[in-house]
Amino acid sequence: MKATAVLHPPLAARPIDRVELDYDARFLRRKLLRTRSGADLLVDLPKVTALAHGDALLSDAGPVEVVAAAEPVLIVTGDLPRLAWHIGNRHTPCQIEPFHLVIRADHVLRAMLQGLGATVTEAWRPFTPEGGAYGPAQVMGHSHGHGHGDGHGHQHAHGHPHPHG
């Protein structure tokens, strides 16, 4: 099968198969995937695309649903607004739930959050972070849509605050 387009929910047709992808694998342009039923699916999209849980890849045989695969994450509880600010200040993808935050497993962030008084628990579950200002699942590393007209380049360390004016 070959997929050349992405469909977003609600899907008009029932998926013919499913493909499980972790957070990193849901950013793709051209890649050979294996579906749950064992079929090969060649994804050939026009540009790198961030797929969200529930999206579908439109294949020549029909829609193949994207399912967020379980992966190592950290469940964070405590002063959520303050903790979320520190996570966001490091441009780290974050899944926001009513009573906890979820981030990808990272020993440095774990230590920082515990130092801020958070309770941090390891877990294995699907990671579906907030998409941010640019739409669903559009959190990709440090890229962000603001200029640096304040006289400095884009490169800067993340171990300290860095206001952008």
Distance separating the two termini: 49 Å
Query: What do we call the CATH topology of the largest domain?
Result: HSP40/DNAj peptide-binding domain
Report the total helices: 2
CATH architecture of the largest domain: Sandwich
The CATH class designation of the largest domain is Mainly Beta
How many structural domains in the coordinates? Answer: 2
Structural class, judged by helices and strands?
mainly beta
Can you tell me the CATH superfamily of the largest domain?
Urease metallochaperone UreE, N-terminal domain
Give me the strand/helix succession.
EEEEEEEHEEHE
Task: Based on Cα principal axes, name the global outline.
Answer: elongated
Domain UreE urease accessory N-terminal: 2-66
Biased composition (Basic residues): 154-165
Protein name: Urease accessory protein UreE
Keywords: Chaperone, Cytoplasm, Nickel
Short note summarizing the structure:
Residues 137-165 are annotated as: Disordered. The protein has 165 residues and is mainly beta.
